[in-house]
Design a protein that fits this description.
Blueprint: E1 3-5, E2 12-14, E3 17-19, H1 33-45, E4 50-52, H2 61-70, E5 78-83, H3 99-113, E6 118-123, H4 132-144, E7 148-154, H5 158-171, E8 176-182, H6 191-201, E9 204-208, H7 238-241, H8 244-260, H9 264-275, E10 279-283, H10 288-295, H11 304-314, H12 322-326, H13 328-335
Parallel strand pairs: 3-4, 3-10, 4-5, 5-6, 6-7, 7-8, 8-9, 9-10
Antiparallel strand pairs: 1-2
């Protein structure tokens, strides 16, 4: 296992993060404590140190299990958890990004995790109600109190993240060091806004569902076909996820996997690593063998041709103004005849490839 700096921080985290939403069977699926322990041990034995959970995962069981597993190695573990989602639907203040919910949630997570501090505390989703300055000042207070070490933000528009970090820099408060977002070969819509923003602000991107809700595991080769008993087979999003575009992407990933004699899972994760150096996939597993398969991507290197084929089949429209600004007449107006003659290290737009 190799390590990466987490965004603009000096914190070293594994190039693959272990997602623990599968720890516990409270939601009707997931892993027993023994199975979860085997997954945890497999990850740690490979050199992993970065663990992701949330206060709502399996009704708190995920945090409790992770806390027990990580206790003997707490000093070397990087533990991340989240708040925002409702923990009591009858209480309007038991959800949201505001200070009251933040403080109550962090204390409850500390108790379930059995620890004195949280390494990385995520806002789980943007609530569109809490002022940005309230959120950033409250997070900074938690850092000053030693309750958390770093702050991250998940499932939030890029403009909010950009404004929040600009405000934090101006006020001398704790900035976000990472964004957690859905990203995979079948879900690339974050690229036009988040890629240039993350490079500009030096933010890590922690990618959830890097296997596209299971589509990129190689289990699904035809639209509408799901293995009996699989989680996706009973999902309300089944038809949305198993659409012709996603199946086409999965087939090309499978072709590349056969060429390299590896799994489709490893192809999907290797593509992500080669896409951007600041991306860290969050991978969960119900049993240890699934995680072992995922971790195999670390030694996989895709060829330029394979990358191009995967990019081409999974390509999405970049939208306005990105595509507009990349047109030749716009480039000529903006740069004169020197669009390709100006030496620079800055990303200009996001290409379609």
């Amino acid at each position: 296992m190799r390590y990466k700096l987490l965004g603009r921080s000096g914190l070293r985290v594994s190039e693959l993060c272990l997602g623990t939403m599968t720890f516990g069977k409270d939601w009707g699926w997931g892993s027993t404590e023994d199975e979860s322990r085997a997954v945890f041990d497999t990850y740690v034995e490979a050199g992993g140190n970065f663990f992701d959970t949330a206060n709502i995962y399996t009704n708190g069981t995920s945090e409790e299990m992770l806390g027990r597993f990580v206790a003997p190695m707490r000093e070397r573990a990087v533990v991340a958890t989240k708040y925002t989602m409702s923990t009591n639907k009858d209480d309007p203040n038991a959800s949201g990004n505001h200070r009251k919910n933040m403080v109550q949630s962090v204390e409850a997570s500390l108790k379930r995790l059995g620890t004195d501090y949280i390494d990385l505390y995520w806002i789980h989703a943007w609530d569109y109600l809490t002022p940005i300055d309230e959120v950033m000042r409250a997070l900074d207070d938690l850092v000053s109190a030693g309750k958390i070490l770093y702050a991250g933000i998940s499932d939030t528009p890029a403009w909010v993240v950009s404004r929040a970090n600009t405000l934090a820099d101006h006020q001398g408060w704790t900035p976000f060091v990472a964004s957690q977002l859905e990203y995979s070969l079948i879900e690339r819509s974050i690229e036009p806004e988040y890629f240039p923003m993350s490079e500009s602000l030096d933010l890590a991107i922690c990618a959830w569902s890097p296997l596209g809700a299971g589509v990129l595991t190689g289990k699904y080769t035809e639209a509408g076909k799901t293995p009996e008993g699989s989680r996706l087979s009973t999902s309300s999003r089944k038809d949305e996820i198993l659409n012709p575009h996603n199946i086409a992407v999965a087939k090309v990933a499978h072709e590349v996997a056969e060429e390299l004699a590896i799994s489709t899972v490893q192809v999907a994760l290797a593509w992500m690593r080669q896409r951007r150096p600041n991306i860290i996939p969050i991978v969960g597993a119900r049993i240890a063998s699934q995680l072992e398969d995922s971790m195999g991507y670390i030694n996989v290197e895709l060829s330029d041709d394979q990358i191009q084929r995967l990019n081409s089949v999974s390509n999405i429209p970049q939208g306005f103004p990105h595509e507009f600004l990349q047109r030749s007449f716009c480039q000529d107006i903006i740069y004169g005849h020197h669009a390709n003659a100006i030496a620079h290290s800055r990303a200009i737009g996001v290409t379609k490839s």
